[in-house]
Amino acid sequence: MPQLRLAVVGAGQFGRNHCRVIHESERAELRAVVDLDPARAAEVAALYGAQPCARAQDLAGQVDAAVVAVPTTAHEEVGRALLAVGIDVLVEKPITPDLDSAERLVDTARRHGRILQVGHLERFNPAVVELERRATLPLFFEVHRLNQFSARSLDVDVVLDLMIHDVDIVLALTRTEPQELRAAGISILSEKVDIANVRLQFPNGCVANLTASRVSTERVRKLRLFQPNQYLSLDYGRQDLAVFSVGAGRRIGFEQAQVPKIEPLKAQLDAFLDCVKTRESPKCSGPAARQTLGVALMILGKIKEHSEVVSQTLAVGWKP
User: Which tens digits make up the pLDDT trace of 96-111?
Assistant: First the structure.
């Protein structure tokens, strides 16, 4: 089978990782690296035998598909430009900063008959894939995603940077949107929200508690799921899934699920290449990512409401 011709738009940290996995793939060829900084584009392109390029529009007719790894605020502009000239797109998460731009991006893909996949990378974590296979009736989630501070991705809040991964997974497992939402968050080292805690309640009574921080002293990425007669504990980083089941006589059984060790970024690329070949809708499609973004923005709205209440409390004076 001939290799698909790919480009990466955005030669920052994420873009370089995408260039690496494309270069290592037997199914794809990295043809071009696009970046507003010509020197950076040339540097990364040289590493992988690709051509540097200054504008995404210049890729027309040169590639079959492209990965968009530019700042979130530029996702719509770059993504629509590529889709309009017949190029399938894998765009990093979140799909866009707001729902209107997400709708325009999704509509552009639909009108031009192009594949639009969104990089909710954790959906390709093999432990998450196994969790999805075993989930029956989720009733309670406890999720923690904590990172040490980094200057990367400070153009978005921690909800759109980190928590959105877990929001996407919870929505996929519950197959519905929450009917009740409570959230609180604060800014510490940036002008955006750096720590957030959220409680989602779904129509069937399922509850999800999510905590995300990018100012932690340690890196923690865990999800715990409770369903009838079963507790599943997932560690994203270790890619493992522990399963505790209650059997006859209330005996508790333990199983360490067999999970293959696969780099999620490579699995995501393979899924994207499959969709480009077959023209089937991606698992992490534009409409699904728009739904996830909608819930994430609702969370940010609730955080804003909570912050206003706290500000009023401080304004009238607080005494220990």
Answer: 999 999 999 999 999 9
pLDDT in tens, 268-279: 999 999 999 999
Spell out a b/e string for 148-162, using b for 16 or more CB atoms within 10 Å of the CB, else e: eeeeebbebbbbbbb
Quote the CA–CA distance of 286 and 118 in Å, as a whole number: 6
Residue owning tokens 């209440």? 309
For range 72-98, the mean pLDDT: 96
Give the model's pLDDT for residue 151.
64
pTM of the model: 0.92
d(CA 35, CA 11): 6
Residue with token string 């799909």: 95
Rounded-to-integer distance, Cα 149 and Cα 165, Å: 18
- Output the DSSP codes for the chain: -PPEEEEEE--SHHHHHHHHHHHH-SSEEEEEEE-SSHHHHHHHHHHTT-EEES-GGGGTTT-SEEEE-S-GGGHHHHHHHHHHTT-EEEEESSS-SSHHHHHHHHHHHHHTT--EEEE-GGGGSHHHHHHHHH-SS--EEEEEEE----STTTTS-HIIIIIHHHHHHHHHHHTS--SEEEEEEE-SSSSS--EEEEEEE-TTS-EEEEEEESS-SS-EEEEEEEETTEEEEEETTTTEEEEEEE-GGG-EEEEE-------HHHHHHHHHHHHHHH-PPPTTBHHHHHHHHHHHHHHHHHHHHHHHHHHHHHHT----
- Phi and psi torsions of 24, nearest 5°: -80, -15
